[in-house]
Amino acid sequence: MALIVQKYGGTSVGTLDRIRNVAARMKRTRDAGNEVVAVVSAMSGVTDGLIKMARDLAENPCEREMDVLLATGEQQSIALVTIALQDAGVDAVSITGRQAGIQTTGSHTRGRILNLDPSLMRGFLNEGKTLVVAGFQGVTPDGMIHTLGRGGSDLTAIAVAAALKADVCQILTDVDGVYTCDPRVVKNARKLPEISYDEMLEMASSGSKVMQSRSVEFAKKFGVVFEVRSSLNDNPGTLVLEEHPNMENVVIRGVSIERSQARLTVTGIPDEPGMSGLILGALAAAEINLDMILSNIAHDGFARHSFTMHSSDLGKAQAALKPLLADLPHSKIETEAGIAKLSAVGIGMRSHSGVAATMFKALGNAGINIGMISTSEIKIAVTVDETRIEDAARAVHDAFGLDKAPA
Amino acid sequence: MALIVQKYGGTSVGTLDRIRNVAARMKRTRDAGNEVVAVVSAMSGVTDGLIKMARDLAENPCEREMDVLLATGEQQSIALVTIALQDAGVDAVSITGRQAGIQTTGSHTRGRILNLDPSLMRGFLNEGKTLVVAGFQGVTPDGMIHTLGRGGSDLTAIAVAAALKADVCQILTDVDGVYTCDPRVVKNARKLPEISYDEMLEMASSGSKVMQSRSVEFAKKFGVVFEVRSSLNDNPGTLVLEEHPNMENVVIRGVSIERSQARLTVTGIPDEPGMSGLILGALAAAEINLDMILSNIAHDGFARHSFTMHSSDLGKAQAALKPLLADLPHSKIETEAGIAKLSAVGIGMRSHSGVAATMFKALGNAGINIGMISTSEIKIAVTVDETRIEDAARAVHDAFGLDKAPA
Fold this sequence. Notes:
Oligomer: homodimer
CATH superfamily of the largest domain in chain A: Acetylglutamate kinase-like
Distance between the termini of chain A: 34 Å
Shape of chain A: globular
CATH topology of the largest domain in chain A: Carbamate kinase
């Protein structure tokens, strides 16, 4: 008998009919002889409706109260899914975040999981019950309701799987698994049977928004193997796990793209200690999420810094730097929106040379100019003009033969 | 500085505008130099919507899960009211039933308050905060969410007032107070400045549904003086408290009516020990709430039992008795629907004789036949034909001069 944790997102429980489908799927898993623990999100639309009411009452509603308000969405879902399970003849019980023993820290609406005491869940499992756990929520050490922010239900599922030492953790979602590239862009993209945590992290930070990075990091930290699969069919999905010798032996696991990027370059900065810190500090204070960061010394002897970010942050970034640059007579800001980022990701890169060469050659052959370049141990990322990003993805995907399973 | 507990029902927080009104009223109370603790219900309609979803999923949804589901209604209200208060510049904080330290016992959806540990609330009050407490809910000793059933928010308010030793407990509702009779029936009915717990209990059990009996019983037990008043204006309402020498010196405090009653009479029952127990046991097993119960021996030597109940229970009651009576060859069932009950209530009755005579004479003069009669130490109740109940109420109200304040 295996213990299976299944996570269902807001779309999967978005209507009463879908809740019945979730119950039916859980029952099948149960009837196949497994212990089942579901982690569920709020019904899609519920959270947005609550946020709308709060914003109608106050421009910036207090985050402690937003947690109290939004945690009700998942609490409703767990009760409804449990009722549907019971109606299908499954002995089930709902578990709030607090009852799941999820203790959190950090600021309200952006909690981090500090600890998880599974004793109540364990007790119910020992009684033969199927559990339905509220995702996205926990309590602070002093008993206040706390939500986990975006992707919080995935995080709950991984944490519950770790604490209960589950055999399998399934993230059931509206995609079939992790693909070598977005199938809407690259028609012959292939679903991956496996991907390593590190690759998944690089894919997540490069625009493949199957899961938030912190859930993957948490899984890696606690060694939770999880599977991303569809809640609409029974196809096997993609296993995410620590790299192992029997993994498909490829150089590049996948290609991900991220649109709506922008570049900001400041030139004419005196090459003195502390200047980069001032610039990055001003951008951080304005809560700009920087992606690529490049610095060098230009031929005029001044430093030059380039950053990429989401294009919606470009105006805010430019404004944040203005007061600082006012004191630097040679400084200039140059911006470029309408760019996109393409990343090739794979642990095989560590042992193979020539990956960048293959990639740049493929882009060159397709007539695509490369802007900025950044690399990690297992990733090469480039910016290109946004109008060419799909061509770029197809060219790189082809160049590495990602449509075919390796021998 | 007084500590004032205010209870707002579902209608009072039924829209965002009404929530703003509640916040404004609380702010006024606060600005007048008081500590304020509000107990709020779910926004009207929310609870019904949740029940509808649950019933769509299962005919008889599990009561434990209904508690988990329905408790979200009040949790949403406390967050929204708190956000509105903060927007109005009041330093406020929401408190769930669990955080209010409300420990409960009894079956799910019908919890009773076992204990209330106000230490968290006391701490927030000491910090100068205004509190918004979720009505209708608590937790069982083993940490499961528990709701208190109908009128549960009133009960929460009384319990919070008792635990915090509040100076005043205001039950803010859509009526102005407790009247000598329903003003829709008796035009010159008078709002009472005060009423004793015992009278309020008899009024509640006789159809004046301002509050559930158990909230009044709880207030009496813990000596909580409370005031029933309107949430729509600032008129003083009715104080409910232990009787005292300076209360208005009247024989009858008020008259209440209850419509849609029915009578069931069984005749031809052998006059043997245990027979009444069998009959009452069968009706209790069918969960029939009996009101009046009359038994006597008829001239034929057989026993005769009459009961009144809500007319919607009549069919169920008759069916419940059928198997029992099948073994009693002389037994017969006789039913009468379309009756109503009129009760005259007053602690003055204890020291005044002739109350029944005045009441029966008034009804006789109005040409109204009396059916069954029952009495308690401070109440006389009669059944009359439902078509005559309003005439009956006016006749009795006039006979005791209830429209005029006593000298």
